[in-house]
Each structure stands twice: as C-alpha cells, then as structure tokens.
Specification:
It is elongated, with a radius of gyration of 40 Å. It folds into 3 domains: 139 residues, no CATH class; 93 residues, Roll (SH3 type barrels), CATH 2.30.30.60; 151 residues, no CATH class. The protein has a 5-stranded antiparallel sheet with strand order 4-3-2-1-5. A 3-stranded antiparallel sheet has the order 6-10-9, covered by helices on one side. The N terminus is likely disordered. The protein is an alpha+beta fold.
Length: 424
C-alpha cells in the first residue's frame, strides 16, 4: 500500500511538472501514461535478459556435470530458455498496478495482455519439450520411429488447439467450458479441416503397430510413381527420396490405403531382384532334329544337358515306336527350350547373380509382340548403379546369344502395321 502511494505520488509529481511547463492536462496525462508504459517495457526487457542469462549459466553448469545427453537436447531446443520468459511476465504483473495506479483501464487491459503472454510461453514450453522428447526417443535408433514422430506432432497440434481455445476465453472473458461447448457445434468443420491430420495419425499408429514401414526403408508406390527411401513420416505427409534424388511428398495415409511395396527385406539381404522379359518372334521357334543337335552340343554350358536330354527323348520314342518322319510326332527338343536351359546355366555361373535366391527362366503367355521369355533372378547387390550394370550385362549376353539358337528377338519395325504383319 505504501509502495502504491509512493508510485502515485511520483506520477502526480510528474504530471504537475508537465502542467507547469504549460502542457494541457489531457496531454500531460497521456504523456505520463506513455512514459509509464515505456518504463515497464524497459523493465520487462531487463528482467527477461537477466532471467535468460541466469538460466543459461545455471543450466550450462548442470550440463557440464552430467554425462547424459537429454539435458543437452532440452537446452538446445530452448526448453529452459522458454521458461525464463515467465520472469518478466510475473514482474510486470506486480509492477503494473504500481506504475499505472491512476489508469485502471490500462491496468485491466494489461492483465489480459499478461495472461495471453503467459499462455504463449506455456504453449512454446510444451512444444519445445515435446520436440526434445521426440529427439531423445529416436536418438538411439538407427531408424526414426514413426509412432514417436506421429504422437509428438499430434500432441503439438492438440496443444496449439487448446492454446487457441484458452486464448478465445481470455479475450472474450468467457469460461473455457463455454468455449468447449461451442466447439461441438463446429465439429463437422473441424473434422473437414483436420481430415489429413486425423487420417495421418491413424496411419502412423497402424504403421508403428505393424512395423510394415519405417524411416529408412526402400519403398515403391506404383500409384504415386514413387520409388525410393523413406526419409520422414509425420502427421500429415511422408517424404520419400527417389533414386533420381527428387523428393516426393505423399499423404501419410497413402502408405496404408494404396499399394506399397517395401523392398527393405530384400535390401537387407544385399540382393535386388531382376525381373525382365525379352520377346521372341513366334515364327523363329522350331523343333530341333538329330542333325541340328550336334551344333548345339558345341555350347559348353549345355553340352551335357543336350546329350542327356536327347538320350532320354530317343529312348522314349523308341519305346513307343514313334514315327519320326514327322518331327511333331513323339517328344522333341526345341530351340527355345534349349535356349532357356542355356540362359539358366549362364546365370548359375554368373559371379554377380545371388545363387541362394530364386532363379527361374519361364515363358509367359504369347502376345502380339511375340513370346515373352522372362528372366527372374537376384543380383548380389542392392546398390542401384551396380545393380543396373549387372542387369544390363546379363541382357547384353542374352540378346546376343538368342541368334545362335536360331531365335529372333522381336522389335517393332517402324512404319509397319504389326497386326497385319503377324497375320500374314
């Protein structure tokens, strides 16, 4: 009470002094109010500066004495620094009634301002704390946990929403329960606005529970034309670095709702699948007679196969008294069948083909472009450039070797009607 009277006396003295200079009463009161506000602002700045420096000094001393990393992260993310901002707010709440005792209107408005400032500091403190906890929760793992990121961002969003509701209550001077009650009326609008956030949260929980996709995994999304490594999954979007070094951003719920291939299990084995077809001209496929087989026996990779297979076929035809005046009678070898075996043996001996994985050469359903002969195997590396080199080397050889077996690899002659050409 004595301090208030002293402050009021000083303000009255300043106002009387301004009047003695011939300044009108209204203007002198305005100047006194402005001077008091500026003085409060200076005090607030000084208090904030002192509080931050004291906090920094104390925290740094504590950090130097500890070996844990969590306190460093809290310090780096400004958790302690945000609390230091409470000092000027508390100081102003005490000093404002003293400096502005003659201005009740300004005091009442200042109280609202301080409540808003206090709310902002608390919201920033919570957000910084959540950010620090997220980093701590994922620091020890090589891959960031999607659940930690999703939950932390959800809490941040909820914190901001609650802060906004409290702000409305403060500014409109209404009870927070009334604000929450009115929020129910706007629930449909809120759901529409935060649709992606809600779907992203649900998707993040599902991904964390199933562990189907993690940050660092190599994924393929055919619907989104995305093929690369997951670098971030947050509440609304997922960022994927494609192999061409571009960044694709897709909704988080796309990782659940659309077709996604996670190639990480294969990558972890340090292998990568080769699945590619060449198209053989149907007209070049034929039976191989006894005379022509001698030429195929000169291929070292299939020499024993051709000999053993032909002995088996000859014995079968003799047992069944097959008339071999027509090649279609009985059993026969074909140039494409021998070629498939040649490619299989070639891959079995290839130094860069993973022999412990599936290796298969198969014919698919014929098309107007010919008969697809599919090569299905795995390169013994997951590195993209090396993989492409291995794959290219394999098909260089296969395409060149096809002619040695009397097979024609199909290509579309420019300017010709292919349908008419095949039909002829």
């Amino acid at each position: 009470m004595i301090a208030g009277e002293t402050s009021g006396t000083k303000i009255g003295f300043l106002q009387n002094w301004l009047r003695s200079l011939g300044i009108p009463a209204g203007l002198s009161e305005f100047l006194v109010a402005v001077t008091s506000i500026l003085l409060l602002a200076v005090i607030a700045y000084v208090l904030d500066l002192i509080a931050r420096r004291v906090t920094k000094s104390i925290v740094e001393r504590i950090i130097l004495k500890t070996t844990s990393r969590w306190d460093n992260i809290f310090y780096e993310k400004g958790v302690f620094n945000s609390l230091a901002h409470l000092a000027p707010i508390i100081g102003l709440q005490i000093l404002t009634p003293l400096f502005l005792s003659n201005y009740p209107f300004l005091v009442e408005n200042a109280k609202v301002l301080y409540e808003v400032a206090f709310l902002v500091v608390i919201v920033l403190f919570v957000i910084n704390t959540i950010t620090a906890l997220e980093i701590i929760g994922t620091h020890e793992n090589r891959k960031r946990t999607i659940a930690v990121s999703t939950f932390s961002q959800l809490i941040k969003v909820l914190t901001v929403i609650m802060g906004f509701l409290v702000l409305i209550s403060i500014l409109l001077n209404i009870d927070i329960k009334t604000t929450l009650a009115s929020l129910g009326v706007l629930s449909a609008v809120i759901i529409l606005v935060f649709r992606d956030t809600i779907l992203g949260f649900v998707s993040g929980v599902q991904l964390a529970a199933t562990k189907s996709i993690q940050v660092g995994d190599w994924v393929t999304l055919p619907d989104e034309n995305v093929d690369g490594t997951v670098i971030e999954v947050n509440l609304a979007t997922a960022k994927i670095r494609n192999f061409d070094m571009t960044i694709s951003t897709v909704p988080t719920y796309s990782l659940i709702s659309s077709t996604v291939t996670n190639n990480e299990p294969i990558s972890a084995l340090h292998v990568r699948r080769i699945k590619r077809s060449i198209y053989i001209n149907i007209k070049s496929i034929r039976f191989i007679d006894e005379a022509a087989l001698s030429d195929f026996k000169r291929f070292e990779l299939i020499q024993s196969y051709v000999t053993e297979r032909q002995a088996e076929i000859r014995a079968f035809n003799q047992r069944n008294h097959t008339d071999k005046s027509k090649l279609a009678n009985g059993r026969n070898q074909t140039n494409i069948g021998i070629f498939r075996e040649y490619v299989r043996e070639y891959l079995k001996r290839h130094p860069h083909v993973a022999q412990g994985q599936t290796l298969m050469i198969r014919l698919l359903e014929p098309t107007k472009d010919g008969v697809p002969m599919q090569v299905y195997c795995f390169a013994n590396t997951a590195e993209w450039v090396q993989y492409e080199r291995i794959q290219s080397d394999i098909f260089d050889h296969i395409l060149a070797a096809a002619a040695e077996f009397g097979l024609e690899v199909f290509q579309n002659p420019s300017g010709l009607d292919i349908d008419r050409l095949i039909a002829s």
